[in-house]
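STRUCTURE:
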């Protein structure tokens, strides 16, 4: 009897293991930054799925990407693809391209051909409305060159245009609008608006495809925008269009974010392939909480998180006892987003701010501790600070020995980037080994806590004292190798003090794949080729 039971158990293990290993997901990210490319793929690979991606060089060549997709689609179960990569050559390229409208139309129609040739492929697509940064940075690689000089004026001009359509401008605002229209060169505005018009037209066509089941799910992101901005203005048009079509949010939606979509839709692909609907309970910190409108967003964080759960194929739980994943969101009590980590020369928090943050962090850490003791599958989205973790919170979690009792953690970049990545990872973490979760958690702690909230800030402050004006946003040039060496030294020192001595943390190195300090890539064990 025991022998028969053992043989049955082995057969079941082989059956489920083979099914998972045999399933292939194609993944085309919108660029090859680690957090939007390798890191979400790494999460899903922990479950035994085969993630097939094109080479980084191919991501900037739409025609080659389409050929790659057409060649590999017949053998795949699902595909998670960036429309920005397939239409423009990537997220950054979508903001600066010179592609004729008829060529873009032809590329968009390729999605219909892909569906016709692969009727059983689960197809998930994510793209972006062009962002509207509140100011430009000279030398920034993400925007047209003129945005460095005219970015703040363009933002304010479109902010007033947006308000004019939904509210009443004051006399001073009318005068400012007229002054900005005269101040910004006409050719700059013509170029900027013409590109956005093509982007909006392509986006509406992709919504049509989702409505017609050519695409299983399409998500369009609103990255770096504000409650009044050109991005918000265009989103009102998209929202009205989707309302007219009566398309459900599980099929298509506009959402405040962008870099988190790869993780969310990869999680959606896995959940759909498994026919699972993870139930998620969300708990915000005290204060404004779910009604927080974080920096770089035009909607409440509560709404954003709820939509992200739907994007990933989950359901919202009413209580934590019945949840597959419990997400704790570390928000500021007043709904503020702190920018200390990215301010150069560095901003100094007042004594009262430090005291308040410390008290807030300790309270939040106690909530997390209580949930962990109840054996809830807990994840933490750390969004009090933009672009980096809350040091007070992380210290409290470390002292309570909670860092590696979590299912997932995130504290990077914008609030929705963080919540989306944590949600996608947390939904899938239940099927991972403890070692796999530890490695994913360690990567986030090194990137979001060690690098973004401490090491990058320290080195950038040192650079701010130099006469050559190096900053985290521009090419490091001849200084890249020396800066990476210093980053690695400081990161190893941080890990030695704050993290367990896992074998995979021995001799890890840090590089800057985009030759700027805004993002880093962490190589466990030793530096690996990209």
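SEQUENCE:
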């Amino acid at each position: 009897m025991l022998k028969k039971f053992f043989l049955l158990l082995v057969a079941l293990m082989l059956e489920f293991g083979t099914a998972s290993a045999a399933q292939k997901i194609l993944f085309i990210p919108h660029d090859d930054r680690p957090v939007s490319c390798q890191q979400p793929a790494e999460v899903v690979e922990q479950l035994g799925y085969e993630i097939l991606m094109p080479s980084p060089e191919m991501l900037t060549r739409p025609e080659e990407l389409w050929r790659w997709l057409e060649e590999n689609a017949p053998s795949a179960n699902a595909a998670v693809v960036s429309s920005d990569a397939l239409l423009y050559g990537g997220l950054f390229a979508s903001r600066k391209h010179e592609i004729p409208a008829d060529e873009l139309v032809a590329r968009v129609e390729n999605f219909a051909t892909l569906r016709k040739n692969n009727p059983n492929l689960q197809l998930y697509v994510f793209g972006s409305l062009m962002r509207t940064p509140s100011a430009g940075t000279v030398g920034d690689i993400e925007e047209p060159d003129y945005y460095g000089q005219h970015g703040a004026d363009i933002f304010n001009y479109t902010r007033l245009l947006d308000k004019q359509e939904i509210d009443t401008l004051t006399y001073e605002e009318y005068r400012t609008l007229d002054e900005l229209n005269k101040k910004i060169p006409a050719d700059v505005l013509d170029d900027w608006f013409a590109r956005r018009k093509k982007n909006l037209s392509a986006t509406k066509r992709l919504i049509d495809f989702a409505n017609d089941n050519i695409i299983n799910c399409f998500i369009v992101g609103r990255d770096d925008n504000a409650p009044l901005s050109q991005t918000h203005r265009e989103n009102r048009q998209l929202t009205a269009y989707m309302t007219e079509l009566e398309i459900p949010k599980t099929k298509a939606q506009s959402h405040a974010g962008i870099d988190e979509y790869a993780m969310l839709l990869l999680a959606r692909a896995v959940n759909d392939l498994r026919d699972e609907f993870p139930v998620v309970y969300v708990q915000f910190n005290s204060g404004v909480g779910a009604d927080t409108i974080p920096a770089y967003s035009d909607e409440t964080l509560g709404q954003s998180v709820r939509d992200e759960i739907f994007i990933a194929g989950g359901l919202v739980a009413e209580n934590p006892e019945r949840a597959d994943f419990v997400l704790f969101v570390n928000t500021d009590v007043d709904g503020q987003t702190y920018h200390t980590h990215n301010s150069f020369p560095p901003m100094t928090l007042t004594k009262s701010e430090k005291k308040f943050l410390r008290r807030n962090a300790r309270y939040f850490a106690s909530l997390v501790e209580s949930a962990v003791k109840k054996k809830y599958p807990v994840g933490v989205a750390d969004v009090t600070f933009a672009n980096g973790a809350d040091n007070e919170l992380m210290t409290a979690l470390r002292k309570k020995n909670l860092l590696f009792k979590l299912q997932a953690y995130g504290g990077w970049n914008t609030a929705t980037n963080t919540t989306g990545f944590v949600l996608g990872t947390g939904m899938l973490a239940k099927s991972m080994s403890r070692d796999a979760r530890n490695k994913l958690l360690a990567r986030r702690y090194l990137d979001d806590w060690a690098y973004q909230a401490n090491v990058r800030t320290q080195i950038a402050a040192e650079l701010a004292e130099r006469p050559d004006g190096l900053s985290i946003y521009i090419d490091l040039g001849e200084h890249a190798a020396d800066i990476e060496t210093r980053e690695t030294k400081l990161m190893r020192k941080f890990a030695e003090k704050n993290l367990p001595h896992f074998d995979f943390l021995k001799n890890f190195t840090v590089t800057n794949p985009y030759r700027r300090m805004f993002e880093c890539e962490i190589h466990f064990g030793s530096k690996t080729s990209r």
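REMARK: Residues 1-21, 526-530 have pLDDT under 50 and may be disordered.
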